[in-house]
Amino acid sequence: MLGLARRVKARILLASTSEVYGDPEVHPQPESYWGHVNPIGPRSCYDEGKRVAESLMVAYQKQENVTIRIARIFNTFGPRMHMNDGRVVSNFIIQALQGKPITIYGSGNQTRSFQYVSDLVDGLIALMNSDTSLPVNIGNPEEHTIFNFAQIIQELVGSGSKVENLAKATDDPQQRKPDISRAAELLHWKPKVSMRDGLKKTIDYFRDEIEQERRLRYLKVVEATACTTIPKKCLQNKLQSTKTRYNIETLQ
Ligand SMILES: NC(=O)c1ccc[n+]([C@@H]2O[C@H](COP(=O)([O-])OP(=O)(O)OC[C@H]3O[C@@H](n4cnc5c(N)ncnc54)[C@H](O)[C@@H]3O)[C@@H](O)[C@H]2O)c1
Questions:
Q1: Between the CA atoms of 39, 48, 83 and 97, what dihedral angle is there, to the nearest 10 degrees?
Q2: Which CATH architecture has domain 2-207?
Q3: Which of 43, 185, 234, 236 has its CA 20 to 30 A from that of 127?
Q4: How confident is the model at residue 230 (pLDDT cuts 50, 70, 90)?
């Protein structure tokens, strides 16, 4: 991609990550911090991959005059996340909505700072329109322990799910909070959406997704068991009345 950017003289953005800071010993994390990464741990392919990507960006800028932008993106969430992406936001919301236990890896004392997706998009646009080639943290400094995060999800969902502690994940960073003074100074950007407001929108989205899946499963059963007896028009009406986004062809 850097070769292509050089050839067509494009400005190129690297979606880097807070993972470049590893399990940080400096808190909050400014861009000047070099990080604390285990080079052979289970997260190292991702962490070191992003670190070498930053390194290549800067080398192409210095040697080939490619115009680069580097965003260090902290944990981000919002509607249209995948329900099964395995990360904490989707896992906790789905568990709470389904009344299942909320499972916490480790003690839950580890912290994260979650930003809403629209703030990230605004930050990336501001970065691309800026004239800085320095890495810039894009994240929301509102920091919570994972245990506290689970409690907030329970409260917002109105769920009676219990909290269960599971084994700690290897090399799990114990704290994460962006220092966003560079973004404020160079991009005039800061997040606008609080974690709670963002979570409310995300919970509504997941609630709808779960309901859509339930309706689709029901209609598939209806079709499988009665497609010979229920006229197609009738099934189409059922689909419209459930307001699903699926049409009759999806089910065939
Ligand atoms: N949108 C994003 O946030 C995003 C995007 C792309 C890549 N990534 C990458 O995803 C990876 C994971 O990052 P992370 O550890 O900060 O996020 P994560 O959501 O996987 O975990 C956040 C914290 O929650 C804890 N946790 C406790 N119980 C959990 C449960 N049941 N399910 C999931 N997590 C639980 C984890 O141990 C961790 O401390 C990183 O490599 C990151 O760069 C994140």
A1: 50
A2: 3-Layer(aba) Sandwich (3.40)
A3: 43
A4: low
Residues 6+ away with beta carbon under 8 Å from 245: 212
List the chain domain ranges: 2-207, 213-251
Q: What is the pLDDT of residues 18-44, one digit of tens each?
A: 999 999 999 999 999 999 999 999 999
Q: Tens of pLDDT along 171-196?
A: 999 999 999 999 999 999 999 999 99
User: Can you name the residues that pair with 11 across neighbouring β-strands?
Assistant: 67
Q: Measuring CA to CA, how many Å separate 19 from each of 14, 54, 79, 192, 213? A: 14, 12, 23, 23, 33
Q: Ligand 1 atom 17: the closest Cα is on which residue?
A: 87
Provide the CA 204 distance to its chain's centre, in angstroms.
Answer: 16
As a whole number of angstroms, the distance between CA 138 and CA 186 comes to 12
Centre of ligand 1 from the C-alpha of residue 88, in Å? 6
Alpha-carbon distance of 27 to 108, in angstroms, equals 18
SS3 211: helix
Q: Report the candidate in 127, 241, 233 with the shortest Cα–Cα distance to residue 184.
A: 127
Judged against a pLDDT cut of 70, whether residue 90 lies above it is answered with yes
What single-letter amino acid sits at 177?
A: K
Mean pLDDT in the chain?
A: 92
Question: Ligand 1 pocket, 105 CB below 6 A?
Answer: yes
Structure tokens at 100: 């299942």
Q: Give the span between the Cα atoms of 252 and 199, in whole angstroms.
A: 35
Ligand 1 pocket member 95 (CB < 6 A)? no
Which residues have C-beta within 8 Å of that of residue 38, sequence separation ≥ 6?
22, 23, 44, 171
